[in-house]
């Protein structure tokens, strides 16, 4: 499904100096910047998320390298990273990103998503996914958006299925985690033909505040 004015991902993927801000009712997704480090650490401290074994969350000792790696991806044109902020107080409550951006095949992956404990199981993640999927399908003109999560992360797997994504299978030893564990991952996707139904479902959830 082409985006506005038949833009493709190759045409529409923003340059590093022109990353988008995606505004919702409750949250806004702002382009990740080096100066966001203290606010990200504060968000991760809400639940001590850097102790999680199923995803990589930056802590005081790792945040600068974590941001630098993301910004290297921005310069390479393969990553579009965001901070997640509550609009009412401009409080950073987590991070998410597009990565594996493939302009030629008009596809990408959403991932590296984490949220402060106080906003988990709230409207925040629903609205973040609504904003990102809308941008991917309707502005970048993607034909596929994929999701990959740790096979051990039952909470994340359930959340992705609730979006309306289709489970495609297990990718064995898909990556090595910081603690050395060889991770098996589960892959899901939404394709362009499915986006209208997924969008309608997300809108219903947003209207219900869930």
Automatic annotation (TrEMBL):
Keywords: Transferase. It is an enzyme of class 2 (transferase). Its EC number is 2.-.-.-. This is GNAT family protein.
